[in-house]
UniProtKB/TrEMBL annotation:
SUPFAM superfamilies named among the record's database cross-references: DNA-glycosylase
Domain HhH-GPD: 85-245
Keyword Transferase assigned: no
Parts forming coiled coils: none
Region (Disordered): 1-46
Lineage: Bacteria, Bacillati, Actinomycetota, Actinomycetes, Bifidobacteriales
Protein name: Adenine DNA glycosylase
Cofactor(s) of this protein: [4Fe-4S] cluster
GO molecular function: 4 iron, 4 sulfur cluster binding; 8-oxo-7,8-dihydroguanine DNA N-glycosylase activity; adenine/guanine mispair binding; metal ion binding; oxidized purine DNA binding; purine-specific mismatch base pair DNA N-glycosylase activity
EC number: 3.2.2.31
InterPro entries for the chain: DNA_glycosylase, Endonuclease3_FeS-loop_motif, Endouclease-III_FeS-bd_BS, HhH-GPD_domain, HhH_base_excis_C, HhH_motif, MIG/MutY
PANTHER family: ADENINE DNA GLYCOSYLASE
């Protein structure tokens, strides 16, 4: 992520009566450890997650980016929209799209009634435009089945269209202040490095990684704490933030890290730093994804009064017309465009 950290003055105070990291969490004995993997170079790296939580909380208060959906400044629906938009997309790109989206469609009911063409156009260059239509499907369920009130339970959230474990957990934590482990690529990388002393190689989260995330999650006080101030919420946010801006995959800024003194990975000499993920990154140039994007961008950029791109204009977008036709057909299958009898295409009504 390329966003610049904001100053402490720009971020609402996160101190409060009875709030902050509490409930020291300990990785207690070798029987709880994953076979064949050590939880750090020595005891101090594994036995006191509370020290890490305290350091991260202080860093979070001083350095957290002032994103518009943070610190209780949006609705649960706004949090969900931010999480869907942020998937596989740099946060700096998400902010203006999220602000424009929420101004236009501030709740599920508003999005549910929007024309598909407007939804696809507003998604812009966030990538993976099917997410926009899935989000609208989700909005219709929330508006119709839950009276425009986003569900409050994990099981109800994961039953919504397009909402998986990560997004449901993030909403439960960031929107509702519930104590639940949020597990994404950044969090897995930080936890693996700090507590296991090893590099996280990506892929799907393993049972061992999920067990670790649950084990080090701080306890929350019974009362007297705003949702975003609760230790478990601050932990999820700060660990994720650390992975995004400091403990990055290839070039971690260890000299700036607030938990470098507790990091087993750094103590071990950063073994395997930046090892390739289990699944290599897909190239973009020349792929069907690129061609699909060209077609959608041509439709989004039509001047007022025009609603379709003709066949000749489509063929100018891409020289390989066999690939072009395949991509147009796939966009039609996904409900992202309508194919007209004369070979032109338009955004769905």
């Amino acid at each position: 992520m390329n966003d610049t950290n904001t100053s402490a003055e720009a971020v609402p105070s996160m101190s409060g009566g009875g709030c902050g990291p509490k409930g020291r969490t300990i990785l207690r004995d070798s029987s709880e450890r994953t076979p064949g993997r050590e939880y750090g170079a020595d005891a101090e790296h594994s036995d006191d997650a509370g020290v890490v939580a305290g350091s991260l909380a202080e860093w979070w208060r001083e350095s957290a980016r002032d994103l518009p959906w943070r610190f209780g400044r949006t609705t649960p629906w706004g949090v969900l929209v931010s999480e869907v938009m942020s998937q596989q997309t740099q946060m700096s790109r998400v902010v203006p799209y999220w602000q424009a989206w929420m101004e236009r469609w501030p709740d599920a009911a508003a999005l549910a009634d929007a024309p598909k063409a407007d939804v696809i156009t507003a998604w812009g260059r966030l990538g993976y435009p099917r997410r926009a239509l899935r989000l609208q499907e989700c909005a219709r369920v929330v508006a119709n089945d839950y009276h425009d009130d986003l569900p409050h339970t994990y099981d109800e959230l994961t039953a919504l269209p397009g909402i998986g474990d990560y997004t449901a957990s993030a909403v439960m934590s960031f929107a509702y202040g519930e104590r639940i482990a949020v597990i994404d690529t950044n969090i897995r990388r930080v936890l693996s490095r700090v507590f296991l002393g090893t590099e996280s190689r990506g892929g799907a989260a393993s049972p061992a990684e999920r067990a670790l995330a649950n084990k080090v999650l701080p306890e929350d006080p019974v009362a007297g704490c705003r949702g975003f101030d609760r230790p478990s919420v601050m932990w999820n946010q700060s660990v994720m933030e650390l992975g995004a801006v400091i403990c990055t995959a290839k070039s971690p800024l260890c000299e700036q890290c607030p938990v470098s003194a507790e990091c087993a990975f750094l103590a071990n000499g950063r073994p395997g730093l930046g090892e390739r993920r289990t699944r290599p990154r897909q190239r973009f140039q020349g792929t069907d994804r690129q061609v699909r994007g060209l077609v959608l961008n041509a439709l989004r950029g039509l001047p007022e009064g025009r609603s379709a791109v003709g066949r000749e204009d489509l063929e100018r977008l891409w020289n390989d017309h066999i690939q072009l036709d395949r991509c147009i057909a796939s966009l039609d299958d996904d409900g992202l465009i309508d194919m007209l009898p004369d070979g032109s295409v338009r955004l769905p009504g």
